[in-house]
Design a protein that fits this description.
The complex is a heterodimer of chains A (327) and B (430).
Chain A (H helix, E strand, L loop, with lengths): L1 H8 L9 H7 L2 H25 L3 E4 L4 H14 L8 E5 L5 H14 L3 E5 H6 L16 H12 L3 E3 L8 H4 L4 E4 L27 E4 L7 H11 L10 E8 L2 E4 L13 E6 L12 E2 L5 H10 L4 H5 L9 H8 L3
Parallel strand pairs in A: 1-2, 1-4, 2-3, 4-6
Antiparallel strand pairs in A: 5-6, 7-8, 7-9, 9-10
Helix pairs in contact in A: 2-10, 3-4, 9-10
Chain B lengths: L6 E7 L6 H11 L5 H13 L15 H6 L6 E6 L4 E6 L6 H9 L4 E7 L6 H12 L4 E7 L8 H17 L5 E5 L27 H7 L11 E12 L5 E7 L5 E2 L3 E5 L3 E10 L2 E3 L1 E2 L4 E6 L10 E4 L5 E12 L10 E6 L2 E14 L6 E3 L9 E14 L10 E6 L5 E7 L11
Parallel strand pairs in B: 1-3, 1-4, 4-5, 5-6
Antiparallel strand pairs in B: 2-3, 7-8, 7-15, 8-14, 9-13, 10-11, 10-15, 11-12, 11-14, 16-20, 16-22, 17-18, 17-21, 18-19, 18-20, 21-22
Helix pairs in contact in B: 4-5
Classes of the chains: A alpha/beta (327), B alpha+beta (430).
Bound molecules: guanosine-5'-diphosphate.
Chain lengths: 327, 430
């Protein structure tokens, strides 16, 4: 990192220079101010929602964005307890490290975690799979909406960011859902200044995205600055994989190699973590946060393009799922 | 005031086909903010349309729902960075509902980019975009005179458009105006002045569009008096004897300092600041944008919606406000109905006492005698609220001078308002 910093530090600033180089030699105070602005905006949003919603919850999966959300919640409410429980919609197709991390973090914070699993939804007939090994990612919607009903939640904090995907780029920070949990992209409430409209009718709820204006790079720079711990699979480790459709697919009991595929052992890390059956790692040698930041600024693929097997199916798949009530 | 602005928010507005999508695509592409898979997808989409190369306007292409139903969603947010700054673009479509869209996207912009097609000159919509920029008091308006290639990069065409627009800006009392010639399609003067070594705009000596965005100075908060609206009162208590409640909030303007005397509004009770608490430790002072918890040296009846201020330069406490309002709702304003107003951290019932004037959105000329406002209309209202609001005029303080109106029946956000300074209302002030 330092070598790279020095390599660029005396060059004249060139406006066409890539953002990658920029991020590396950005001066610290500037970065701090930028992260403080993002952090303060997120805290403000969380407090507004807690003040106006009747029964909020925070979606916590053990992934990096939701880990950052917990830090924001600490900043917003400590020394008090969080004024909401944590909710994990569990596909049960998890990387074991992530679940172990989830439980450890919850215990450290002394907060309450509610877990509801897609497996329960399958058992009680609310979810029907076409194939036993299909991705459970889209089915989380049913489990999530059932949990919202069960606990009568009216506001759910999520860690989604607008830079992730083009449907998210058009979504509000406080995003209204009708009683079916559906998002209506063309009927969103105007969101002006920092005034959020949290009024809803019974049975409706809002999804709230305090990290809307953060980018993947901001998340990692914040993790570095705050010295936030994340699950080990975000760092380079050796793992058995096969190459499929230009992606690296991890070999697990749920995702065995197919006929004719060659299993290789590579140094990889995950950029996102989700359901095992649809989360692909990227080749990487980054063993710590600084090295991940370096790789992030040099990355040539978007976070979703590089890692999500399910989003590839169609350009519009996220949009379609969101409308049905997906995160 | 912030010591420096490390990120800049700008909005883009233009009539259909003025080249807005091409410009945003060019900024993202030339600043190398677009990653390979996205470029590949744009390449495929370009080919699908039977064209060669990369149609940059497709970079910001819409959702399936938008394409299928021929609609456009009012605002999309995009992010990019250069060595000097990070940028947030609020990209609002120029089609139907452009007033509503622009108001929705641009309320927190530092710069409003208004596009005009050099071969067409100023259009009625250009005036409207300028008017909305003025209404929202966006600190900088940048007129981008696009498609200079279509007019042979003519200096006189540029000058004529510039002088027309200067007239409009003066009428609207736009504070800072910059006019820049570009070709979004060819790239002239967007990121760099010359393209492939050819400088088509050799007569132009100002910054390129990106250089302007990278260097424009932004002063987001003009009013320096303390405004600290209370969001929440803590359940836990603080202090050695655990007897002080914490007031959670976000400093909207000015500074709050330990030991200083403050006034709590609307009760007007005074106290001294005992502590400024954050998870990262106690602080002596906090400034604009800081999210903090404050304790006071005396027990005061204080709840969400109250505002902690300093004793000098007090805001007005009033249950009657005069404001400019942009109507966003589908149903027109009804004078007889009750609405909700959300202002700072307070929501109060309100009725519209009267529609004072209705503005012609192209000239901003006021007509009296209007009875309602419809979607996209801008007018001046006199509003009566069930409880007092703590306001400053919008021009002096965007946070304490802005509000939204919510329809109690549908819960929709139906209007955005900016408070005017009109102290001589008949008896409205407490
Ligand atoms: N000649 C020329 N054409 C342009 C320029 N910028 C945009 N266009 C073209 O104008 C048309 C409309 O552009 P688009 O970006 O889609 O406009 P929007 O509706 O404002 O987003 C497209 O055919 C563009 O290629 C320019 O600088 N010069």
């Amino acid at each position: 990192m330092n070598a790279i910093l020095n390599a660029f530090s005396d060059e004249r600033l060139n406006p066409t220079e890539s953002s990658a180089r920029f991020a590396m030699r950005e001066r610290r105070p500037n970065l701090r101010a930028h992260l403080r602005n993002l952090e303060a905006e997120a805290i403000h949003i969380m407090r507004e929602v807690v003040a106006e919603a009747r029964n909020p919850a925070l979606l916590f999966s053990g992934g990096k964005d939701s880990i950052v959300m917990l830090r924001i919640a600490e900043k917003a409410f400590r020394p008090d307890k969080f004024p909401f429980p944590l909710l994990h919609i569990d596909t049960e197709h998890n990387f074991p490290e992530v679940i172990a991390f989830r439980d450890k973090r919850v215990a450290e914070l002394g907060e309450k975690l509610i877990a509801r699993s897609v497996g329960d939804s399958i058992a009680n007939g609310r979810v029907v799979l076409r194939r036993p090994d299909e991705s459970r990612n889209p089915h989380q919607t049913v489990t999530l909406l059932d949990a919202i009903k069960e606990f009568e939640f009216d506001a759910l904090f999520g860690g989604a960011r607008r830079d992730e995907e083009k449907a998210r780029a058009k979504e509000r920070i406080v995003s209204h859902r009708d009683e079916w949990g559906q998002w209506d992209p063309k009927n969103q409430r105007p969101e002006l200044w920092n005034l959020y409209n949290l009024r809803m009718h019974p049975g409706e709820h809002v999804r709230v995205f305090p990290l809307s204006n953060w980018t993947e790079l901001d998340i990692w720079q914040y993790i570095a600055e705050q010295e936030i711990e994340v699950p080990a699979i975000y760092f380079a480790h050796r793992r058995e994989i096969v190459e499929r459709k230009g992606l690296l697919v991890p070999i697990t009991s749920l995702t065995p190699a197919r006929e004719g595929e060659t299993i290789k052992t590579l140094s990889v890390r995950f950029r996102t973590v989700g359901d095992i059956t649809c989360t692909a790692p990227v080749a990487s040698n980054a063993t710590n946060v600084d090295e991940v930041i370096e790789e992030t600024v040099l990355a040539r693929l978007t976070e979703r393009g590089a890692t999500r097997l399910d989003d590839q199916t169609s350009d519009a798949s996220m949009e379609a799922r969101k409308k049905e009530g997906y995160f | 005031m912030k010591p420096y602005v490390d990120s800049l928010r700008f909005s883009t507005a233009g009539s259909v086909d003025d080249g807005k999508s091409t410009l945003i695509g060019r900024l993202l592409y030339d600043s190398k903010s677009i990653l390979e898979d996205t470029i590949a997808a744009v390449g495929r989409a370009t080919t699908k349309r039977g064209q060669d190369g990369l149609d940059l306007s497709l970079l910001t292409d819409g959702l399936t729902a938008e394409r299928e139903q021929g609609i456009t969603i009012d605002v999309a947010h995009r992010y990019f960075a250069t060595p000097r700054r990070r940028f947030v673009i609020a990209d609002t479509p120029g089609h139907e509902q452009f007033t509503r869209n622009m108001v929705t996207g641009a309320s927190t912009s530092d710069v409003a980019i208004v596009l005009v097609d050099a071969s067409k000159g100023i259009l009625p919509q250009t005036r409207r975009h300028a008017a909305v920029s003025a209404l929202l008091d966006i600190p900088h308006v940048l007129l981008a005179v696009n498609k200079m290639d279509l007019v042979g990069y003519s200096e006189s065409t540029f000058k004529a458009i510039k002088s027309d627009f200067k007239g409009i800006a003066a009428e609207l009392r736009i504070r800072t105006l910059t006019v820049i010639p570009i070709s979004a399609l060819k790239g002239d003067n967007v990121v760099s002045k010359a393209v492939d070594g050819v400088d088509n705009l050799s007569w132009y000596n100002g910054p390129t569009l990106l250089e302007f965005l990278e260097t424009v100075s932004v002063d987001r908060v003009r009013k320096t008096n303390l405004r600290f609206p209370v969001q929440l009162v803590s359940r836990v208590k603080f202090g050695p004897t655990q007897e002080h409640r914490g007031y959670l909030g976000h400093v909207e303007s000015g500074r709050i300092k330990v030991g200083e005397r403050v006034v709590v509004l609307p009760s007007r009770e005074t106290a001294r600041v005992l502590e400024i608490i954050t998870v990262d430790g106690s602080r002596k002072t906090a400034g604009v944008g800081d999210a903090i918890t404050v304790t006071l040296d005396r027990q005061i009846d204080l709840s969400r919606g109250d505002v902690i201020v300093e004793a000098t330069g007090m805001p007005q406490i009033t249950d009657r406000i005069r404001a400019n309002v942009c109507w966003l709702g589908n149903a027109p304003l009804e004078v007889s109905r009750r609405y909700l107003i959300k202002h700072l951290t307070r929501a109060v019932r309100a009725t519209i006492e009267r529609v004072e004037t209705h503005y012609d959105i192209e000239t901003l000329k006021a007509t009296r005698g209007a009875e309602t406002l419809r979607t996209n209309d801008i007018g001046e209202l006199v509003i009566r609220t069930s409880q007092p609001l703590i306001v400053d005029p919008y021009w002096a303080n965007h946070a304490t001078g802005s509000f939204i109106i919510i329809d109690e029946a549908t819960n929709a956000t139906v209007a955005a308002g900016t408070v005017l300074s009109e102290p001589e209302l008949d008896g409205g002030y407490v």
